[in-house]
Design goal:
Helix content: 40-55%
Order of helices and strands: EHEHEEHEHEHHEH
Number of helices: 7
Largest sheet: 7 strands, parallel
Oligomer: single chain
Strand order of the largest sheet: 4-3-2-1-5-6-7
CATH class: Alpha Beta
Structural class: alpha/beta
CATH architecture: 3-Layer(aba) Sandwich
Length: about 180
């Protein structure tokens, strides 16, 4: 059963307001389903939109942030003390994000988001966890990544079954339904 979802997403809002709207919609759906949000602890960008939506829906938020990013400007002020984890390193942050989620989802973001998403998919490929991995493909944001995965399969660098470890949907409800089904 899907109890907590770790979400990787941008600390920037991006240029397209539909990315912010998708983050809010995903957060609202998490709160509606009473699924705990586990994320990077930020109050800015898509991270802030996502957390604000979960809080507004009465949901629970677990934040994991490295000490060097814990400033008044970056840390979300509504995260309850027992749900806040401050780490010394980014590596420890990723370990806790991975540990606390029953599934992993990427929303649009930059290098950190891509790093975190590919790490959890690679760990699934290596059978270091059996938790489902997904991406919310807002306006085709992840299409270039999917093209790359297809090229890697065609070139013999990636097995099709490993490429399929990344579940990609453009609708938050459909993605959460699929992830929930995969955890049963």
């Amino acid at each position: 059963m899907l109890r907590a979802v770790t979400v990787f997403c941008g600390s920037s809002p991006g240029r397209d307001p539909r990315h912010r709207a998708a983050a809010r919609e995903f957060g609202e759906e998490l709160a509606r389903r009473r699924i705990v949000l586990v994320y990077g602890g930020g109050r800015v960008g898509l991270m802030g939109e996502l957390a604000d939506a979960v809080f507004a829906g009465g949901g629970r938020v677990i934040g994991v942030i490295p000490a060097f990013l814990r400033t008044q400007e970056l840390l979300h002020p509504r995260i309850a003390e027992p749900d806040l984890f401050v780490t010394e390193t980014l590596f420890r942050r990723k370990e806790l994000l991975i540990e606390h989620g029953d599934a992993y989802v990427a929303l649009p973001g930059g290098l950190g988001t891509l790093d975190e998403l590919l790490e959890v998919v690679t760990l699934a490929q290596l059978r270091r966890h059996d938790k489902p991995c997904g991406a919310l493909n807002v306006r085709g944001f992840f299409d270039p990544l999917l093209d790359h995965l297809r090229r890697a399969v065609d070139a013999g660098f990636l097995d099709p079954e490993h490429a399929a470890l990344l579940r990609v949907r453009d609708d938050p409800r459909a993605l959460l339904d699929e992830l929930d089904e995969a955890t049963r």
